[in-house]
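About this split. The held-out portion is used to measure sequence recovery: a designer receives only the structure tokens and must propose an amino acid at every position. Recovery is the fraction of positions where the proposal matches the reference. Here is one held-out target exactly as it appears in the evaluation file.
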């Protein structure tokens, strides 16, 4: 009874294990479905993240033009980063939740090994796909690099054209400066000639005063009328001689007159100036006049007969003196105005000369800077061209290597696909000789020798399982190492992408700075052109002022005549207004009379429809005609007066316009002086900004050099990593081959397990047959046979227990591998999200 119970227990356990295996297969299918759903979700999230990254990059490139927009974009970036972090946190939480759920739902099973190995193969395939995508991205990067290289070439050509234009403009400015210098020399010559003319006029005035003093002395001599009144011919000759005679004291008079104007109308005279005043011809003329008066008084007392003649001559001389005093006043006012104008013009000329010199120096400095910039640009162009050419060649070589690797992998896959089914057939062929032995041998030998051989086969299977276990451990270790290296490579690639992004931003900043410097240069050139135009305008205004001074003298005479005419016209206009008032009163009276007559006619027409007041009608017509004739005469007079008035008003407006033009010109001159000073200050500010920009450029160049060195080191490191990846790709291919071999081995192991189950069933049947035969052969079974049967049963139970322990160990290993794979998936997903 014990034997029957033992047999029943062993068959039930096998059936339970089969049921568990089926349940595990179903659970694994469900887990696969869940994995596919999670992968699809992950792909969606990755696509969304890529969209976010693309948006961020587009915003960065667009909002790098102005600093205000940069601040706004930085805020947007921070917000987007916060959102991405939130999404990442949510994703992490979801992943952790899914992992916990999976851990709670996963059960042990033998078939999990195959599924894990298939998943690893899928991961290897996915890695190959990722490498293909990376190759595509590298191709896109190469195309972008070519486009950027073409853009830089076009920009360099544009800069060269701008530099040539600037050189042509500088040449034009130099020619304009030379023309301005010639014009300044001409203006200085004109000013010197005007000063010489003023000196000659002063000399002539002094000569006239000396002649008057001489004439007074001659007239006071006691002589006849002929001696007192010289002839007209002598007078004219003496005047001509005086005009043509030079005097050397005029410079002293000018110095004395100009000192108070230069010191803002405050007479700060020194001892030398007072001595000059005492020794001046004006003081001499006063002394001579005093002497003449004394002599005249003495002679009047002595000679009473010549009193009338002396009175006449004194009257003539007083008139001459009045005229001379007026002339002196006019000459003094003219001198003062000319002195003021000459002072202003001299100051303006000095300022203009200083500005011209300053502008010439700045132009020379800018020319030197432009040449330096040209040389630097040429060097940088050569260096950039060499670097880009080297990068392009490196990328091309890498792409060619990757393409060859891809072709090799594809060829190996094609070769491995027909080999998958061959190992299973070999395993079947290996297992088939046992059946042949059973058929050839006798039934008794099989019953006796079959347990020993089966035990040996089980031992061999255990040894093969241990080897498979070690092989799986080695595979798991290698996969872990490869995944760690993959993580490192992905982190390095992310750092390289960030470094490239930073380098692009710095290059854009430098380009914006260069554009700003070009704008400053253009503004300086425009200001120089404006200054040159202002210099020309100043020269034109100077010539116009000289002409207008002459016109003003003539216009003063015309103004006096026009004033007299205006007085007459005012009288005429007043009379015309009186006539207009009278005419208005007459019109009102006529209108009242006409209304009265109309009312009377209407009444008369109403009363006497057939009678007509002919007399009144003719009288009204006569009065009307007379009024029209008077109106026409008044209108003619009014038109004549209006014409005369318009002519006078036009002449007055012309004079006022000339006066206003003079005032406007003075205002313009003052404004131009202020503009010149402002331009000088602006040039100083430009120099300061230029120095600052040069310092910033030097710092930027240093940064660019450092970044270029970093990029070179990074590129070298990338090449090393790519070489390592290429080596690891070969290792991956070897591992894939090993995994396929493991699949075939596992398939053979499954068949072996099925065969062992069949063998166990056969053993049960054989045991039952042996028991039946022993019972039939011996009615009373011996104790030895029973002990042998019990030992066999115990051996069978031990074999079943060993199989169970082995299956449990395999299930534990499968769970361990599943956990490791999930952790690796989580890590890869996080890296992709980053």
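Reference sequence for scoring:
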């Amino acid at each position: 009874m014990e034997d029957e119970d033992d047999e029943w227990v062993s068959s039930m356990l096998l059936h339970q294990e089969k049921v568990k295996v089926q349940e595990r297969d179903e659970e694994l299918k469900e887990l696969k479905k869940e994995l596919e759903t999670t992968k699809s979700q992950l792909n969606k999230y990755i696509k969304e993240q890529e969209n976010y990254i693309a948006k961020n990059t587009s915003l960065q490139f667009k909002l790098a033009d102005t600093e205000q927009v940069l601040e706004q974009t930085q805020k947007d970036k921070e917000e987007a980063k916060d959102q991405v972090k939130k999404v990442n946190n949510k994703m992490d939480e979801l992943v952790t939740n899914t992992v916990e759920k999976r851990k709670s739902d996963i059960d042990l099973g033998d078939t999990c090994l195959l599924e894990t190995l298939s998943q690893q193969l899928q991961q290897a395939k996915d890695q190959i796909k990722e490498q293909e995508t990376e190759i595509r991205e590298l191709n896109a990067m190469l195309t972008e690099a070519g486009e950027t290289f073409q853009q830089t070439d076009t920009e360099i050509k544009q800069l060269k054209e701008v530099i040539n234009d600037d050189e042509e403009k500088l040449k034009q400015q130099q020619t304009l400066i030379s023309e301005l210098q010639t014009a300044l020399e001409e203006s200085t010559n004109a000013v010197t000639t005007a000063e010489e003319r003023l000196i000659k006029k002063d000399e002539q005035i002094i000569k006239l005063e000396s002649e008057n003093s001489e004439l007074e002395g001659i007239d006071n001599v006691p002589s006849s009328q002929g001696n007192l009144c010289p002839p007209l011919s002598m007078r004219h000759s003496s005047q001509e001689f005086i005009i043509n005679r030079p005097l050397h004291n005029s410079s002293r008079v000018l110095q004395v007159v100009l000192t108070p104007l230069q010191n803002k109308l405050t007479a700060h005279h020194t001892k030398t100036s007072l001595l000059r005043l005492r020794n001046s011809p004006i003081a001499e003329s006063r002394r001579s006049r005093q002497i003449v008066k004394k002599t005249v008084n003495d002679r009047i007392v002595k000679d009473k007969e010549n009193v009338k003649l002396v009175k006449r001559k004194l009257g003539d001389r007083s008139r001459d003196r009045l005229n001379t005093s007026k002339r002196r006043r006019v000459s003094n006012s003219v001198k003062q105005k000319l002195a003021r104008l000459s002072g202003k013009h001299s100051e303006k000329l000095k300022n203009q000369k200083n500005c011209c010199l300053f502008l010439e120096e700045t132009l020379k400095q800018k020319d030197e800077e432009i040449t330096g910039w040209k040389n630097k640009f040429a060097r940088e162009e050569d260096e950039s061209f060499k670097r880009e050419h080297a990068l392009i060649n490196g990328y091309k070589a890498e792409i060619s290597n990757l393409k060859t690797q891809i072709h090799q992998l594809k060829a190996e896959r094609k070769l491995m696909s027909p080999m998958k089914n061959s190992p299973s057939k070999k395993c079947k062929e290996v297992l088939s000789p046992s059946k042949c032995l059973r058929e050839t041998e006798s039934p008794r030998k099989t019953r006796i020798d079959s347990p020993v051989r089966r035990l040996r086969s089980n031992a061999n299977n255990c040894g093969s399982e241990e080897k498979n276990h070690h092989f799986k451990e080695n595979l798991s270790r290698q996969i872990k190492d490869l995944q760690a290296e993959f993580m490192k490579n992905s982190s390095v690639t992310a750092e390289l992408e960030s470094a490239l992004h930073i380098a692009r931003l710095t290059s854009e900043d430098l380009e914006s700075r260069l554009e700003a410097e070009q704008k400053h240069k253009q503004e300086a050139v425009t200001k120089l052109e404006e200054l040159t135009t202002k210099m020309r305008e100043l020269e034109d205004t100077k010539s116009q002022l000289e002409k207008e001074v002459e016109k003003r003298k003539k216009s003063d005479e015309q103004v006096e005549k026009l004033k007299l005419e205006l007085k007459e016209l005012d009288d005429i206009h007043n009379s015309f207004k009186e006539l207009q008032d009278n005419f208005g009163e007459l019109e009102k009276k006529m209108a009242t009379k006409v209304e009265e007559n109309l009312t009377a006619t209407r009444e008369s027409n109403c009363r006497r429809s057939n009678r007509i007041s002919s007399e009144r009608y003719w009288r009204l017509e006569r009065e009307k005609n007379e009024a029209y004739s008077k109106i026409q005469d008044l209108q003619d007079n009014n038109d004549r007066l209006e014409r005369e008035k318009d002519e006078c008003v036009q002449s007055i407006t012309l004079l006022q316009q000339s006066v206003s033009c003079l005032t406007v010109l003075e205002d313009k001159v003052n404004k131009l002086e202020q503009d010149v000073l402002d331009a000088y200050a602006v040039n100083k500010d430009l120099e300061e900004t230029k120095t600052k920009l040069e310092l910033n450029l030097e710092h930027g160049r240093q940064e660019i050099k450092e970044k270029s060195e970093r990029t070179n080191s990074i590129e070298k490191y990338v090449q090393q990593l790519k070489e390592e990846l290429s080596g690891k790709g070969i290792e991956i291919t070897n591992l894939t081959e090993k995994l396929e071999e493991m699949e075939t081995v596992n398939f053979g192991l499954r068949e072996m397990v099925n065969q062992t189950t069949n063998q166990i069933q056969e053993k049960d049947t054989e045991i039952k047959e042996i028991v039946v035969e022993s019972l039939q052969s011996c009615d009373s079974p011996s104790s030895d046979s029973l002990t042998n049967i019990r030992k066999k049963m115990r051996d069978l139970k031990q074999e079943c227990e060993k199989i169970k322990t082995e299956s449990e160990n395999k299930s534990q290993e499968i769970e361990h591998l599943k956990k490791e794979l999930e952790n690796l998936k989580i890590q890869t997903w996080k890296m992709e999200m980053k």
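Annotator remark: Residues 443-607 form the longest helix (165 residues).
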